[in-house]
């Protein structure tokens, strides 16, 4: 799939719905740029998402570094994601036994499964971490459905809603009929009901091929996992054997593991269509060459090295954009560079 277009990869019969959605979104926005929003307050996060949202396909968070992270953060971020059409990736780097990661994923002040379509995990605890997170994602979605139903039954009589321009397949799956309403408080309901549980195609995405939408509608949940197969940091201990173990485990869970955090494409078998997300990317400031690290182990390469040289799909950029005076403009510069490298790779360059 190295030289296949994102659009063609989205349409392959075994592409999981969320991967198809992302690949198609990248095609429409002409963006294979993920912003790493490593900021420490809700206000900064929202300002950044608003400024840069048009240029990215994905926004990566570290929710645990946000001092005032809470419901308000989630609601506002989801609203910006809906308006600007990007997905959210919580860079949690899970690494514990299955039972613990299930709780870390769905509960506590972060409750990642509620608001981030994508998260990631290390494989060092062993392969059971993947099915553990997969089943936790499914339970979180089922709980969401219960909450929605309860909210409907306790609320004031709903006025008939106008027909939606989106096809029915884009709505969250309906909850089971006849659930008891008495055990869930209204405030709980209100705090969760505005968190979209699946990406909502908006009128701007109305041109999506019917098969992508059909597969989106058929899925019980739209949550996905990336495995950390390689790191960008100097001296990381993820050996080639470890990397191969990540690929093997990913192949056993193709419906949930949609790709890797890695420094190169790892697709080797004909059925492999994993998406490669690559951190450690920066562009030298215009007119200068060669800032290659941050003094704390981070190593950088350019979007072109990553996408054209190593077959990476999505470049993850943090400080390269965050430190710019005009972040929207700098994000556009990265988007253009990364997209041009992709077009060259697939032979679509003008
Ligand atoms: N990240 C890496 N390298 C990895 C995995 N993840 O840098 O191998 C994450 C960091 C940070 C971002 O946690 O959020 O990607 C990189 O930020 P930067 O562009 O500012 O260096």
Automatic annotation (TrEMBL):
Matches recorded under Pfam families: OMPdecase
Matches recorded under CDD domains: OMP_decarboxylase_like
Bias kind Pro residues: ranges: 157-175
Keyword Nucleotidyltransferase: no
Residues the entry annotates as binding substrate: 38, 60, 232, 298, 318-319
Listed GO biological process terms: 'de novo' pyrimidine nucleobase biosynthetic process; 'de novo' UMP biosynthetic process
InterPro entries: Aldolase_TIM (IPR013785), OMPdecase (IPR014732), OMPdecase_AS (IPR018089), OMPdeCOase_dom (IPR001754), RibuloseP-bd_barrel (IPR011060)
Domain Orotidine 5'-phosphate decarboxylase: 32-334
Key words, A-Z: Decarboxylase, Lyase, Pyrimidine biosynthesis
The protein's Enzyme Commission number: 4.1.1.23
Gene Ontology MF terms: orotidine-5'-phosphate decarboxylase activity
Region of interest called Disordered, as start-end residue ranges on this chain: 152-183, 189-208
Family: Belongs to the OMP decarboxylase family.
PANTHER family found in the cross-reference section: OROTIDINE 5'-PHOSPHATE DECARBOXYLASE (PTHR32119)
Protein name: Orotidine 5'-phosphate decarboxylase
Record organism: Trichodelitschia bisporula
